[in-house]
Amino acid sequence: MDALARLGMESDLPRDIQNTEAIDTVFEDCKDFFIKRDGITYAGNHLLIDFWNARNLDDPDQIDATLRRAAEAAGATILHGHFHHFTPNGGVSGVLVLAESHISIHTWPERHFAAVDIFMCGVCDPNMSVPVMQELFQAGRVEIDAFRRGRVSETRHTGR
Which of 93, 102, 104, 106 is labelled catalytic? Predict the structure, then answer.
């Protein structure tokens, strides 16, 4: 039963999601890995990165090693990685599962394009991953969309 409680599968809290008093108590009593910055509390930073006119998009071992270095540069903890190579000259799809969330990649060598998704919570900084990946991909153009995921209403979070 304790294992289920640690996984969040059992709770003494009411199931009524409208009961914000119970939720506020949980927020005040537990340490979590949400981020508080600029007056906003949120789960983590999510980057969607497009590497255009890129190179080195068809070697899963090289991409795996680079994403591992990128995760370390961001301060993340790597739990598991899996990369798949589509045909000898095709693209690579893969993911690093992180204690802080994930980094995933899909490459299209025939289009000189790679799409990378990085989501990290806590003190990790996914922006530190970008230069590491750029060393390998040598992209002519890098486009980044950044999102703060899991925003918590400050009113609800503080109980005001």
Answer: 106
